[in-house]
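Course exercise 7: structure representation. Students receive a sequence record and must write out the corresponding structure in token form. The form below is the worked example handed out in class, using Trk system potassium uptake protein TrkA (219 residues). Read each field label carefully; the graders check that inputs and outputs are placed in the correct fields and that the protein name is recorded exactly as given.

STUDENT ID: A-19
EXERCISE PROTEIN: Trk system potassium uptake protein TrkA
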Amino acid sequence: MNKKVIVIGLGKFGSNLAKTLAMEKVEVLGIDRNEKLVEDISQDISEAIVADATRKEVLKSIGVEEADYVVVAMSNLSASVLIVLYLRELKAKFILAKANDEDHARILRLLGADRVVIPEQDAALKEAQALITPNMVDFLPLLPEFLIARIDPPDEFVGHSLKELDLRRRYHVYILAIRKKHTSKIIILPPAEHVIEKDEELFVLGKKEYLEKLLPDTD
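STUDENT ANSWER:
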């Protein structure tokens, strides 16, 4: 059975999220007061409607309690606060809310949002990480001390198998997946016999200090 997601607010963040979910065969209902935004996305998702989600009766009428996730992608603080409050009252299963800054995020969490994202801050964090460690091309925070990093393989890894590299013992990290660059081919939990190639990306789990040891000295 396909997941159902309601996306409230079809600006840049909301529309991109909605389209991406739809591409993954998720049933997506998009809502916005702006007719143009609704029209622009109507062919890309399951359903898009023009409505004012700050009205509790509107949220009730679209069955927010039946959706697996409800995304509040509004930049307006008062609107997002009101919507999250109503969603919690209407027993939404999981609320993902967008915030403009930490103060906004704190309010949304207090009102009951299950997860809050700050897109600009998250993007800035990734860019800062890229400047500090250029070979760590992407990362995803898990717990305060753990990350999943997407890195280019160091030169000394190329041509060697995972068994030969013995990364768990040498670096205390785990290879979760390997992807061929510029393709959709990905190997989840690659076997020990897999030989690292130069045009691959490694998805590595570990503590930040151990992940950084995989990278060349950039001083």
